[in-house]
């Protein structure tokens, strides 16, 4: 799972609006801009 997340982070690193964060004891969360946000 860590390798998969690392590869995703590498692909998404060029976009500062997108991030994958680790929630300890829970898993991962994808952070993206909300619809309608500029």
From TrEMBL:
Signal peptide: none annotated. This is OmpR/PhoB-type domain-containing protein. InterPro entries: OmpR/PhoB-type_DNA-bd (IPR001867), Sig_transdc_resp-reg_C-effctor (IPR016032), WH-like_DNA-bd_sf (IPR036388). Keywords: DNA-binding. The keyword Oxidoreductase does not apply. It comes from bioreactor metagenome. Coiled coil: none annotated. One of its GO terms (biological process) is phosphorelay signal transduction system. One of its GO terms (molecular function) is DNA binding. The lineage of its organism: unclassified sequences, metagenomes, ecological metagenomes. PROSITE patterns: OMPR_PHOB (PS51755). The keyword RNA-binding does not apply.
């Amino acid at each position: 799972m860590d390798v998969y997340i690392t590869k995703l982070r590498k692909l998404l690193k060029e976009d500062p609006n997108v991030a994958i964060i680790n929630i300890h004891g829970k898993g991962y969360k994808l952070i993206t801009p909300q619809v309608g946000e500029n």
